[in-house]
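Re-run requested by the PI after the first attempt was lost when the workstation crashed. Everything re-entered from the original request form. Ligand of interest: pyridoxal-5'-phosphate.
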Amino acid sequence: MSDKTYGFETLSVHAGAAPDPATGARALPIYQTTAYVFEDADQAAALFNLQTVGFIYSRLTNPTNAALEARLATLEGGRGCTVASSGHAAQVLALFPLMAPGAEIVASSRLYGGSLQQMRNTYPKFGWAAKIVDADDPENFKRAVTPNTKAFFIESLANPGGVISDIEAIARIAEAAGVPLLVDNTLATPWLCKPIDYGATLIVHSTTKFLSGTGTSMGGAVVDSGKFDWAKSGKFPSLAGPEPAYHGLNFFESFGDMAYTFHSHAVGLRDLGPSQAPFNAWLTMLGIETLGLRMERHCANAQKVAEYLAKHPAVAWVNYAGLPDNKYHQLARKYLPKGAGSIFTFGVKGGYDVGIKVVDSVELFSHLANIGDAKSLIIHPASTTHRQLSDEQRVAAGAGPDVLRLSIGIETVDDIIADLEQALEKATKK
Ligand SMILES: *Cc1c(COP(=O)(O)O)cnc(C)c1O
């Protein structure tokens, strides 16, 4: 199937999943197997030497996972993909081939809270340092570069503040610094934004969210654009130097634009081990078939809910890039022309007490810590996800006492609005 000639929705249904050649099964089979029988000793040796492609052991590769990898690579406009057990596992896997003790990442200060935890508290234990910068001014990335910088890390649409990064400007600075730009595209999904078109090198996803789409399956992915020259700067010896685990094989010399993806299976998944379960890959494939339909509805509903809340007397502010007075509205029009996503925050007058009364009063919304489900979700970050922080840290993270985060689902929009209406009324009743 030639990918170039089909539209996004067609590829969402077909890419990576032809009828099963052995049985004719039209749906993708779940290859629930740990290992694969070798043809003979020579083929086994060639597989272990990476001289031929095939399946050895499902920690490294699995045919159901391979179908998801092909679909995600196609939808993002990339060359290869590696799926992982969660979004966070994918982030570690994505950085692993680039980093070494003493190496530095420059990352946006407005990342998903869990990603900032990784950067600030866990990566230093590997000897990796993260410089956290305000991404609203792309020049901050340039100022943070040192000879040890190996990667830039941003989110296309950041969770939860609705912050949109100027991907093209930051990609230009990354290119000048000789480092890859990693973009977490979880909240936008490739239906809203394809960061590789703007110069991103690597895309990471929590497929747990919109891609699987129904809150059933943890998963993550790394998509490689295949466009980065890993040999040029001498900064990436794991990819463009001799690999001791494979008799000194040089991945970039041997595999060219597939070097990064082969390395992340043959070394990353093999040695770190965060493989995705084939059943989760299968559910995510099923989810992606309706990605375009769902995102269209998610965005349309979120736009109407944001407009409704912006006029509500009990609401102090609404932070949604789809509203014309939002700080990121112009960037949204450039990078997310089909809609500003379905996750946003708003502030209630009356602060903390009113905030927790709203989450206790909703009926249709689910009060929980997830996003990107077909169901509408709500959380009060100050009393939950951001509880461990100080008041000042909470405000800096966009999680002050009055903040509520919504992930708008695909239900009938009037029902979503009616639920917020009754919850706000109960919460503000004297
Ligand atoms: C949820 C999320 C992650 C982490 O993904 P998990 O699948 O929960 O490990 C990373 N980045 C963003 C933007 C997220 O929303």
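Saved to the shared folder this time. The radius of gyration is 22 Å.
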